[in-house]
Design brief:
By secondary structure, the chain is an alpha+beta fold. Helices cover 40% and strands 15% of the residues. It has a two-stranded antiparallel sheet.
């Protein structure tokens, strides 16, 4: 995280730009093996768990908001 603030009575978090594609796009690009999908889902889950452990709650966790 680079910055946390408030604008128009809404809290925002400025984070690092990550090159890649969203999980929904990654899944649609081609057929994936079960192992590939589970590996990426596990990584996303570990990232979400780490955020929760740090006291952050992602209120819109979905494939289009996960970067691969």
């Amino acid at each position: 995280m680079h910055e946390v603030g408030e604008a128009d009575q809404q809290v925002f978090i400025a984070m690092e730009f990550v090159r890649g594609v969203s999980l929904d796009v990654w899944l649609a690009q081609r057929s994936r093996t079960t192992r590939e999908v589970l590996d990426v889902f596990r990584q996303a889950g570990r990232g979400l768990a780490a955020a929760h452990e740090a006291g952050l709650v992602h209120r819109d966790f979905k494939p289009s908001n996960v970067m691969v």
